[in-house]
Amino acid sequence: MSGPRRWLAAVLGAVAVAAAVGGGVVAPRPAQALDNGVARTPPMGWNTWNTFGCDIDETLIRQMADSIVHNGLRDLGYRYVVVDDCWFDPNRDAQGNLRAHPQRFPSGMKALGDYLHSRGLLFGIYQAPLDQTCAQYFDAFPGSTGSLGHEYQDARQFAAWGVDYLKYDWCSPTGTINDQVARFGIMRDALAATGRPIVYSINPNSIHEKTGPQRDWSDVANLWRTTEDITNAWNTGQTNGYPMGIQNIVNVNVPLAGYAAPGGFNDPDMLEVGNGGMTDTEARSHFALWSVMAAPLMMGNDLRSANAATLAILRNQNLVAINQDPLGRQAVEVSHDGTRRILAKRLANGDVAVALFNQGGSPTTISTTAAAIGKTGSSFTLREAWTNATSTTAGGISASVPAHGTVVYRVSGGGTTDPPPPTTFRLRSESAGRCLDLDNSNSANGTGTLIWDCHGNPNQQVTQSGQTLRILGKCLDVPNNATNGTRVQIWDCNGGTNQQWTSNSNGTVSNVRFPSLCLDVDNGGTANGTPVIVWSCHGNTNQRWSRL
User: Fold this and answer.
1) Which of 78, 259, 343, 529 has a CA 20 to 30 Å removed from the CA of 43?
2) Do 172 and 318 reside in the same domain of the chain?
3) What's the CA gap between 83 and 98, in Å, rounded?
4) Could you write out the three-class secondary structure of 443-471?
């Protein structure tokens, strides 16, 4: 495991899953894929929270909108202006309607939306699915004006104000992941019922077990946060806990690439570019990685005073084009040795964007090949995203990359296929969203396996040799008397069929000696520390694994 065992200490209360609307009760419909016509590429824009928190008003928002236009950012695609927490009157009116804060937004929210629309921008707003917003939960802003029991009423209000984007933040330790799916689903349906196209962005992680990475949320929302809140730092040493540095977020978000598609994207949180907590190299790396990961590009700095270096990063047209590619794919990991990380993003015209990311503390050369990133042929053109310089290659792709830096090439020419599966990989459970892990990095014979948040440490790195799967130099093994419920372990490699595994077309992994037994997450558990066992093969999601 990557850190001490962390469990939700207590569930403070159950969450109701039906919304009272106009005296009636509206239950959420069963989840289905969200196709509301918006967010066909990752949204781009600006959000108030990272720089201003609760200290916001309508003058600030209008000034920031003007700066977006003045700096040429709107024309590059930065169009959503999202007013985060603390915009509202702490008390609803006598009919239960939300209202703008009378001192902060005296002109009202519709007037603000009208101003943004007049500037060619789009209007985003913040709410929460329980009784309090995040600022209210932490007593930074009085009141209880969350949407609990008001979902359809609030959705109609947002539509009437001309809202184009809703950020919906759980911000509570209460409720299971199923409660979250149900409650988020109510607002999904309420927004759809308005008939207005509104991007729906959810955060299931704040003050909660980190459920963002545990499922594909594309049936619920257009965007879903995968980590705790970002902070203005490169590395905070967190696996997935508050606050998250850039590198820590990348470790969580990269394994989730398979979820991204037009209309639904993993959200590793807003940009910290221009906020001063990183070197220029780190800030460029932050932006480059968010671009290839098909992440929303939501600026979080004060654009009124942005310097030339910050604007040069935010206005990098090569990276914006990669981010906004209509194929909507997130870069997949080609290789990662703990320091040098290579990500490849297939693009709609057959090009491939490749990111060479140096997670280490000193410069290093990072190399790959056109074949490794999914290109076929013998002649390719490389366009470097930062310098715009072009070069040609017969297949080799290489760069000297500074510490914490990322070099991005757009590779054109030849044909394109999906990158071949890596021979060193992690095994990620489809049901849990977590990776097969060797308990406490113990390499002793008989050490059991479990699931844990996916990371890049060696105790999750699986190497395939023939039909053996090896971790920390030992083979994945079941005892010779294995039956349903036997825990999967490691043991000195001995060539036995109990150490050989078959990867099946449905995503299951069966044992060669016991072909009716498959790798299984015990009882379909999703929590860190749940044992990995063998069980009669049935093909359910707790027996399906993907290679990362």
Assistant:
1) 343
2) yes
3) 15
4) CCCCCEEEEECCCCCHHHCEEEECCEEEE
Q: How far apart are CA 142 and CA 91, in angstroms?
A: 9
For 267, phi then psi, to 5°, come to -120, 105
* Residue recorded with tokens 């308005």: 194
Answer yes or no: do 63 and 89 share one domain. Answer: yes
Residue 2 within a domain: no
Do residues 364 and 400 lie in contact, with contact meaning Cβ atoms separated by under 8 Å?
Answer: yes
Percent of the chain past pLDDT 70, that is, above it, reads 93
Compute the distance between CA of residue 331 and CA of residue 425 in angstroms, rounded to an integer: 15
Residue 299 lies in a domain: yes
With 0-12 / 13-18 / 19 or more C-beta atoms within 10 angstroms meaning exposed / middle / buried, residue 342 is buried
Amino acid 21: pLDDT: 31
What does pTM read for this prediction? 0.80
Query: What pLDDT was estimated at residue 35?
Result: 81
Question: Which residue reads 């990776």 in tokens?
Answer: 435
Question: Could you give the CA distance from residue 486 to residue 481 in angstroms, rounded to a whole number?
Answer: 9
Question: Cα–chain-centroid distance for residue 267?
Answer: 4
In this predicted structure, the answer to whether residue 12 has a pLDDT above a threshold of 50 is no
CA separation, residue 52 to residues 60, 64, 124, 479 (Å)? 10, 12, 16, 58
Residue identified by tokens 């206005």 is 315
pLDDT for residue 40: 96
The DSSP bridge pattern shows strands 44-47 and 265-267 to be unpaired
Q: What phi, psi does 532 have (nearest 5°)?
A: -100, 125
Q: State the catalytic residue, choosing from 85, 164, 169, 269.
A: 169
Domain that holds residue 245: 44-323
- Cα(330)–Cα(348) distance, integer angstroms: 12
Number of domains the chain is built from: 3
Structure confidence at residue 422 (pLDDT): 62
Task: Report CA Rg, the chain.
Answer: 24
Categorise residue 139: left if φ over 0, alpha if ψ from -120 to 50, beta otherwise. left
Burial of 289 (0-12, 13-18, 19+ CB in 10 A): buried
CA neighbours within 13 Å on the CB side: how many for 257? 22
Active site annotation includes 169: yes
Residue 189: is its pLDDT beyond 60? Answer: yes
